[in-house]
Amino acid sequence: MSASDSLSTLAHEVRLILAEASGLDPTQIVIGPPHEAAKQQDNGNQSLDYLCVFFYCMGFSGFPADAASIDPLYLKALCMITARGGRSGEKTPGDSELMLIGTVAECFHKKPVLKLDAAQIQIVPTQLSLDDINHLWATQNNTPYRLSLSYEFSLLPVPMKVRVESSPRVENVFLTVKPLETDNPAADTREDGS
Fold it and tell me: How many CB atoms lie within 10 A of CB 7?
């Protein structure tokens, strides 16, 4: 499994978990930036609710002291999940967004560990400052801000495999020196008789 497979596997698993928790169809959970979710909602049925799963930053994390190049690399993935409420019936888009964000928060509070193949990914809520929010939304092609939550997913192994434990490494080497033993005791005495 390549690096792209690990990240994609994580994104699609998050989509499935959120679809189950919210009751949304997986196609209503967009993996990508919020402006893509807005475009999909505008081009589709505007009465439908959407969630957007946007991985906005990756970082290195978890460096085992004895790791080799055959061992997986561990990453942390920062993700913003945004709600986009539809226009339907008595509920306003704002009301729908509050319910969706509440569902996301409850889902990850109840299940803070995500099991992928042999890996266990921790789901840690993170707080975005107003400055962080402004920076993220400034890149969204004039898409207006919507209520969002941010999470860190770590430690994500790349590739998605368990680290293979090798045999213990050598800690100490001992060398013992002793005299050579012979079968002839006369050869061990000195010629001068001492």
Answer: 18
Question: What is the pTM assigned to this prediction?
Answer: 0.76
Is residue 179 in some structural domain?
Answer: no
User: How many CA atoms does the CB half-sphere of 188 hold within 13 Å?
Assistant: 7
Direct distance between the N- and C-terminal alpha carbons of the chain, in angstroms, rounded to an integer: 76
The residues, ordered by sequence, that sit 6+ positions from 83 with a Cβ below 8 Å of its Cβ are: 49, 50, 51, 52, 96, 97, 98, 100, 101, 104, 146, 147, 148
Q: What is the CATH number of the domain that holds 62?
A: 3.30.2000.30
Q: What letter does residue 72 receive in the DSSP assignment?
A: P
Category of 63 on φ-ψ map: left (φ > 0), alpha (ψ -120 to 50) or beta: beta
Confidence label for 1 from pLDDT (cuts 50, 70 and 90): very low
Find the length of the chain. Answer: 194
Asked whether residue 189 is domain-assigned, the answer is no
**Residue 38 sits in which domain range?**
3-168
Split into its structural domains, the chain has a count of 1
